[in-house]
Design a protein that fits this description.
Elements: H1 10-28, E1 35-41, E2 55-60, E3 66-67, E4 72-74, E5 87-88, E6 93-97, H2 102-105, E7 111-113, E8 125-130, E9 136-142, E10 159-161, E11 174-176, E12 203-210, E13 213-218, H3 224-227, E14 233-235, E15 241-247, E16 253-258, E17 268-272, E18 275-276, E19 282-283, E20 287-291, E21 303-308, E22 318-322, E23 329-330, E24 335-337, E25 349-350, E26 357-358, E27 363-367, H4 370-376, E28 385-387, E29 397-403, E30 409-416, E31 432-434, E32 447-449, E33 474-479, E34 482-483, E35 494-500, E36 506-512, E37 518-527, E38 531-536, E39 549-558, E40 564-573
Parallel strand pairs: 6-7, 27-28, 34-40
Antiparallel strand pairs: 1-2, 1-10, 2-6, 3-5, 4-8, 8-9, 10-11, 12-13, 13-16, 14-17, 15-16, 17-20, 18-19, 21-22, 21-31, 22-27, 23-26, 24-25, 24-29, 29-30, 31-32, 33-35, 35-38, 36-37, 36-39, 39-40
């Protein structure tokens, strides 16, 4: 006996309708990695054997069919139109491309044309696959380095995933196609191999996006629910975290919200107790990484520390920047430049395209090819190398400028080839190293050729010729520490006495009130003897008596070698004549 919906009991109708809704939801609401990006043709020109069009291939890695209706493909700046109705079977492939490309690719396999197909960048792109409900199912942040072949990265070859069952393994799971046609759209990848992921995730570094928001960056995508467990993270210096979340589309970053703002003068330590990647490999060891709130550097607070302007053949220039402390900086807000022939500052080059925290004592390198640098020199901290096309730094003479986000010159070095050690016949491949971070930047005697025992260069770590000037030897004393300028003949003035064994010292003396306001410039560029003193009668720069309270006398000494030192002493101004 046949039945139609009108003859079925109402309870059965409701049940069937509920099952249909569940089936429809199951076909649309997918888990991460059920469908993944399996092959990318970002640069089809010059063609090798495939049509001259960009495309992306998807594979269904699950055991069930997936309806791709209303899915989308996106990049960092755009999102495609919705996919048409299409049921992608388990372990099956489909090519996603533009409407104009479809007639040339559909002979290769199942092909879907979408409107507004993203324009794929040749050298780096953030691609993500989004389901109908807006959830990111898979994301890939590829770069030209993934080809690992200088010929293939010039165009005509696709990037293929090695093992689609481990889609969150990153760059180690991708290679340039080895198929004679340049790619394998619609068929098994030519580089396919079983490449299991058995390594737990590793936290790489941190940065801050606000005074209360910390970002932890990992080396691979995480289990997002596990990563959002607040008890996995602790921080020192009186802060605590109130919220943790794993950020799409790559799920390799965790955002932590603190209970109060961070102090820009403090380096925090974040302890990570547990983390899992998308293959459930769990981090067992407790790891601590540094974090801090960056500020904009002022002059000489961040310095040019090493310059290679005459590299070996087939090698590249590099510039090393050093943070002497105590402040924290962000490499994405710092720039290198040079000057034109008429002295104008040329177009600056940013140190890092994304936020990167530079802590006191860190050495940062900017060069065109990091791999080339590692071939020619010992690189102790490879994560501190950034790639960019540097400004022109000629072999005979030139200038290197370091700028902050406001365009203020933080440091400048006007070098010449003559700064190299005189006994070096050919300084090709030999860097110039700064001797004393506190000494003048363009002083020739503060630069020296890198030592041969260090391989003629020390990128990312302490210079082979590094040497700090000895501290200034001086002693200061205030008597009395409490005085009352009331003209009664008793402690009407206070005296700052000094003793020093070093000739040629120059002093500037400033007096500040308890709020940090400058109220008196007691001495300006005074040349010191072996001993001496200054008197203060409690007046300001206008000769007016100051209110009672605590005052700070700050003495700044410097010598002709460039050494500087500050001395601070407190004094109390008590009852005075009204």
């Amino acid at each position: 006996m046949k039945h139609n919906m009108t003859t079925l009991p109402s309870w059965m109708k409701r049940s069937l309708l509920f099952i249909a809704v569940l089936m429809q939801y199951w076909l649309h609401a997918q888990d991460r990695y059920t469908v993944v990006i399996n092959e990318i043709m970002a640069d089809p020109t010059p063609t090798v054997g495939l049509p001259d069009y960009e495309w992306v291939e998807l594979i269904n890695t699950s055991a069930e069919p997936v309806n791709l209706r209303n899915w989308r493909l996106g990049d960092a700046t755009s999102l495609s139109g919705p996919f048409p109705e299409f049921l992608l079977q388990p372990d099956s492939l489909v090519i996603i491309c533009s409407g104009s490309a479809r007639p040339f690719l559909q002979a290769r396999g199942q092909t879907l044309a979408v409107t507004s197909f993203p324009s794929l960048n040749n050298d780096g792109e953030q691609l993500f696959l989004q389901s109908a409900n807006g959830r990111v199912i898979h994301a890939v942040h590829y770069s030209v380095d993934w080809y690992a072949n200088p010929l293939k990265q010039e165009g005509g070859w696709s990037l293929e995933m090695i093992d689609a069952s481990n889609p969150c393994s990153g760059s180690g799971n991708w290679k340039a196609s080895i198929h004679p046609a340049g790619g394998t759209p619609g068929r098994s990848n030519s580089v396919f191999a079983v490449s299991p992921d058995t390594s737990p995730p590793d936290p790489l570094r941190s940065y801050m996006i606000s005074p209360t928001s910390f970002i932890l960056l990992f080396n691979e995508p995480l289990d997002s629910l596990y990563a959002a467990t607040l008890s996995h993270y602790t921080v020192d210096h009186g802060l605590s975290f109130t919220k943790a979340s794993c950020l799409p589309p790559f799920f390799d970053q965790v955002q932590l919200e603190a209970n109060s703002p961070a102090d820009s003068q403090v380096v925090y330590n974040i302890t990570i107790k547990q983390a899992k990647d998308c293959r459930q490999n769990e981090m067992t060891a407790t790891i601590t990484i540094k974090a801090g709130l960056p500020t904009d550097p002022g002059p000489r607070e961040f310095i040019i520390n090493e310059i290679l302007f005459d590299p070996k053949p087939n090698a590249y220039d590099y510039v090393e920047i050093y943070n002497p402390g105590p402040k924290i900086f962000d490499a994405s807000k710092l720039y290198l430049s040079n000057r034109s022939s008429n002295g104008q500052i040329n177009t600056p080059i940013v140190l890092s395209p994304s936020p990167f925290t530079i802590f006191p004592g860190d050495h940062i390198i900017l060069t065109e090819k990091a791999a080339s640098l590692a071939l020619n020199y010992l690189v102790k901290n490879p994560m501190n190398i950034f790639e960019a096309r540097l400004p022109s730094y000629p072999d005979d003479e030139g200038n290197v400028l370091l700028l902050n986000a406001q365009g203020l010159i933080i440091d400048e070095v006007n070098y010449t080839r003559d700064w190299h050690f005189k006994l070096i016949d050919n300084p090709e491949g030999v860097s110039l190293e700064r001797i004393d971070p506190s000494a003048p930047s363009s002083e020739p005697n503060n630069w020296h050729s890198a030592a041969s025992t260090a391989g003629f260069g020390t990128p990312t770590y302490t210079n082979s010729q590094s040497r700090k000037q000895p501290p200034i030897q001086a002693h200061f004393e205030i008597t009395p520490s409490l005085f009352s300028p009331d003209n009664d003949g008793y402690n009407d003035i206070t005296t700052l006495y000094y003793k020093t064994t070093e000739p040629g010292l120059v002093a500037n003396i400033f007096i500040f009130d308890a709020a940090g306001r400058l109220v008196k410039h007691l001495a300006r560029n005074s040349l010191l003897g072996n001993n001496g003193h200054w008197n203060w009668d409690g007046t300001d720069n206008k000769g007016q008596l100051l209110p009672i309270g605590i005052y700070i006398i700050q003495t700044e000494l410097f010598n002709l070698n460039g050494s500087k030192q500050k001395f601070r002493r407190a004094v109390v101004l008590a009852n005075r004549l009204n």
